[in-house]
Amino acid sequence: MRPGDRLEGAARLRREADGLRSQLEAAERLADAATATATARVQEARDALAEEDRDVERLEPLLGEVDALWQAALDDQEEWAVRNDPATAGKVAETSRRRGEVLAEDAEGREAHAAGMVAREHLRGALSLLGEAHSWSSWDTFGGGGVFTDLM
Fold first, then answer.
1. For the chain, which residues make up each domain, given as ranges?
2. Euclidean distance between CA atoms 113 and 107, whole angstroms
3. CB 138 within 8 A of CB 27
4. Residue 8, burial from CB neighbour count under 10 angstroms (0-12, 13-18, 19+)
5. Which 3-state string (H, E, C) describes the chain?
6. 17 neighbors 95 (Cβ within 8 angstroms)
7. Fewest CB atoms within 10 Å of the CB: 28, 34, 35, 66?
8. Helix 89-131 with 3-84: angle, nearest 10 deg
9. Are 137 and 35 in contact (CB under 8 A)?
10. Is 110 or 145 the better-scoring residue by pLDDT?
11. 8 Å CB contact between 49 and 121
12. Distance in angstroms (rounded) separating the CA atoms of residues 93 and 97
């Protein structure tokens, strides 16, 4: 072995190590940028969800009041029509039939609302998982795979 061979080998290893360091720094910058973007998106989603929660809490109690007031108004209208105008009795019957249809549609709407609430809870779970994405990507890149295992 020539004396220069060891020096050339050491220089080659140094260049490879510098190249790997450069790749690692680039990967870290990309991971940091991706994490910052994901963190911002998660925060935006959390803020939007909190706003939706406030709207639901504010509006939910009003739904019961609206239903009760609507029902009372319909009952009063029917009683007045039957008492004061017998010819209106047929119209009242038709209105009652249509009212039944509307109530059925309302029940479907409430079922859809309940399904939406379940979906919202699933989205909350997804947001939680996204919050853990940074630690997952770090482990995958530096602990469980990627750069370090490729070096060995």
1. 3-151
2. 10
3. no
4. exposed
5. CCHHHHHHHHHHHHHHHHHHHHHHHHHHHHHHHHHHHHHHHHHHHHHHHHHHHHHHHHHHHHHHHHHHHHHHHHHHHHHHHHHHCHHHHHHHHHHHHHHHHHHHHHHHHHHHHHHHHHHHHHHHHHHHHHHCHHHHHHHHHHHCCCHHHHHC
6. no
7. 66
8. 160
9. yes
10. 110
11. no
12. 6
Of 124, 116, 102, 105, the closest CA to residue 60 belongs to 116
Report yes or no: 141 and 147 within 8 Å, Cβ to Cβ: yes
C-alpha dihedral sign at 112, 115, 117, 123 = negative
pLDDT digits (tens, 9 = 90+) for 79-95: 887 788 877 777 777 87
Structure tokens at 114: 């309940």
Model pTM score: 0.37
The C-alpha atoms of residue 67 and residue 35 are separated, in whole angstroms, by: 47
Pick from 150, 66, 77, 51: which is nearest to 110 by CA? 66
Hey, what amino acid is at 76?
Answer: D
Whole-number pLDDT of residue 151: 47
**Token pair of 73 as six digits:** 């108004």
